[in-house]
C-alpha cells in the first residue's frame, strides 16, 4: 500500500525519551523528565480522588458535546457555548483545523522554529507550508504577512512560542490582526497561557468579538498537569467552531478527561501553587544562566531555551547519564541549545550543578 506521496518525506513524531528506557539504559533508579513541558508538580489531588468514580460506566460512550465542561468554560471565558471545540489534546484541534481548511493548492504560514504539528498536519492535507524565521525567538509578524497570497488559508501564531518561550504582546497582535486579510484563519496557540506573567499579554478571548477569523487554542496538558488524559480546546467565532465540530470525531474526548478537566478548572489552589513554584524556579535557573554567561530567549512559559558553547546533543547526552531528560535543540531546528522544562526546586539545583560541571570541566577536556 502506498500512502500519499508526502509520506515519503515524513516520519512519526519522536517523543522525548521515555523514563523507563533511560532507567534501563543507564542503570538509574530515579529520572527527572524535563523534556516535554509537563507539570513537575503533578495534577490536582481532587482529580486523583475522583478518578475511581470516573471509571464507572466505561461501557457507555462519553457525551460527545462535552456539555458540562462546555458550560463551565463558556461561563469562565464569557463566550457562547457553541464557540468551543474540544479535542484529544489541542494537538487534535490542530489536525481538525488542517482537515477543515487545507488542501492541495492552498498554503499556510508558520514561524521557524515553532510547534511542529502545524507543519506536519498541513503537509498531510497537501498544503504548501511557508516558514518565516523567528527574530530573537519572536515571531516576525510583518515577515509572515509579507508571505500572504491568494492561496493562503491559515497563519499559525504559537504564543508563547514553543520552543523559544517568547510571547507576542498585545499591541503586536492587534496590529497583526488589523493587517491580516479577514478570510485567512489566524490560529493563536496558547498552550502556555496560564504561565504568562507579562502585563502586556493580549486578551485573545476578548479579541474574538472583533475578529471572526481568529481561533484560540488552549490545553489541560501543561499548567493543569493532565497531559496523560489528552484534552484541549479551541475557541472561535461560531462560523469557525461549527465547521470544526463537523470535522471532529463524534466521541473524541473521553468522559474521564472531560470530568477531570472540570475538576482541574475548579482547583485554583493547585494551579496557583504550580505557577508560583515554576516562577521561582525559573527565576533561579535564569540567574544561574546569567552567572554562567549563557544566553537564553525571553520566556513566558514553564520552559527556557538556552544557547550553548557546545552542541545541544552533547549536553543532552551528559544529563541523560545523570538521570535528567531535557530536549536537545537539534530536533527543534536549533543545534547549539537545549530546551529545559522548569522542574521542582531540588531537581533544578542538581541539574544546575551537572550543567556547571559539564561546561566548566568536561567541555575543556573534550
Ligand atoms: C504541548 C503543546 C501543545 C499540545 O498540547 P496537547 O493539548 O497535549 O495536545 C500544543 N501546542 C503547543 C505549542 C504545545 O507546546
From TrEMBL:
Catalytic activity reported: L-histidinol phosphate + 2-oxoglutarate = 3-(imidazol-4-yl)-2-oxopropyl phosphate + L-glutamate
Cofactor: pyridoxal 5'-phosphate
Pfam family, one: Aminotran_1_2
One BP annotation, GO: L-histidine biosynthetic process
Residues bearing the modification N6-(pyridoxal phosphate)lysine: 222
Domain Aminotransferase class I/classII large residue range list: 30-355
Listed pathway(s): Amino-acid biosynthesis; L-histidine biosynthesis; L-histidine from 5-phospho-alpha-D-ribose 1-diphosphate: step 7/9
InterPro entries linked: Aminotrans_II_pyridoxalP_BS, Aminotransferase_I/II_large, HisP_aminotrans, HistidinolP_aminotransfase, PyrdxlP-dep_Trfase, PyrdxlP-dep_Trfase_major, PyrdxlP-dep_Trfase_small
GO molecular function annotations of the record: histidinol-phosphate transaminase activity; pyridoxal phosphate binding
Keyword field: Amino-acid biosynthesis, Aminotransferase, Histidine biosynthesis, Pyridoxal phosphate, Transferase
CDD domains associated with the record: AAT_like
Enzyme class: transferase
The protein's Enzyme Commission number: 2.6.1.9
PROSITE patterns associated with the record: AA_TRANSFER_CLASS_2
The protein's assembly and partners: Homodimer.
HAMAP family listed in its UniProt record: HisC_aminotrans_2 (MF_01023)
Family according to the record: Belongs to the class-II pyridoxal-phosphate-dependent aminotransferase family. Histidinol-phosphate aminotransferase subfamily.
Protein's name in the database: Histidinol-phosphate aminotransferase
Organism the protein comes from: Natronobacillus azotifigens
Amino acid at each position: 500500500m502506498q500512502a500519499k506521496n508526502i509520506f515519503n518525506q515524513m516520519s512519526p513524531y519522536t517523543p522525548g525519551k521515555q523514563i523507563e528506557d533511560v532507567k534501563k539504559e543507564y542503570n538509574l533508579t530515579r529520572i527527572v523528565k524535563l523534556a516535554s513541558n509537563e507539570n513537575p508538580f503533578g495534577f490536582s489531588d481532587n482529580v486523583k480522588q475522583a478518578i475511581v468514580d470516573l471509571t464507572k460506566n466505561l461501557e457507555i460512550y462519553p457525551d460527545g458535546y462535552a456539555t458540562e465542561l462546555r458550560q463551565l468554560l463558556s461561563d469562565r471565558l464569557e463566550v457562547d457555548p457553541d464557540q468551543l471545540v474540544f479535542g484529544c489534546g489541542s494537538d487534535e484541534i490542530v489536525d481538525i483545523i488542517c482537515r477543515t481548511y487545507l488542501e492541495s493548492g492552498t498554503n499556510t504560514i508558520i514561524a521557524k522554529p515553532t510547534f511542529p504539528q502545524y507543519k506536519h498536519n498541513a503537509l498531510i492535507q497537501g498544503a504548501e507550508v511557508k516558514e518565516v524565521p523567528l527574530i530573537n525567538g519572536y515571531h516576525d509578524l510583518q515577515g509572515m504577512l509579507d508571505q500572504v497570497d491568494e492561496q493562503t488559508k491559515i497563519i499559525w501564531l504559537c504564543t508563547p512560542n514553543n520552543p523559544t518561550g517568547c510571547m507576542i504582546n498585545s499591541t503586536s497582535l492587534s496590529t497583526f490582526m488589523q493587517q491580516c486579510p479577514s478570510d485567512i484563519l489566524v490560529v493563536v496557540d496558547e498552550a502556555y497561557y496560564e504561565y504568562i506573567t507579562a502585563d502586556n499579554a493580549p486578551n485573545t478571548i476578548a479579541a474574538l468579538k472583533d475578529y471572526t477569523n481568529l481561533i484560540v487554542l488552549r490545553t489541560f496538558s501543561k499548567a493543569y498537569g493532565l497531559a496523560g488524559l489528552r484534552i484541549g480546546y479551541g475557541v472561535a467565532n461560531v462560523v469557525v467552531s461549527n465547521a470544526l465540530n463537523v470535522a471532529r470525531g463524534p466521541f473524541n474526548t473521553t468522559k474521564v478527561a472531560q470530568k477531570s478537566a472540570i475538576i482541574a478548572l475548579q482547583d485554583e489552589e493547585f494551579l496557583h501553587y504550580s505557577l508560583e513554584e515554576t516562577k521561582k524556579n525559573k527565576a533561579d535557573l535564569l540567574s544561574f544562566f546569567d552567572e554562567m554567561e549563557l544566553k537564553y530567549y525571553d520566556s513566558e512559559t514553564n520552559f527556557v531555551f538556552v544557547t550553548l558553547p557546545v552542541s545541544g546533543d552533547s549536553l543532552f547526552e551528559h544529563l541523560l547519564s545523570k538521570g535528567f531528560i531535557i530536549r536537545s535543540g537539534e530536533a527543534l531546528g536549533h543545534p547549539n541549545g537545549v530546551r529545559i522544562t522548569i522542574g521542582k526546586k531540588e531537581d533544578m539545583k542538581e541539574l544546575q550543578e551537572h550543567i556547571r560541571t559539564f561546561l566548566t570541566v568536561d567541555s575543556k577536556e573534550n
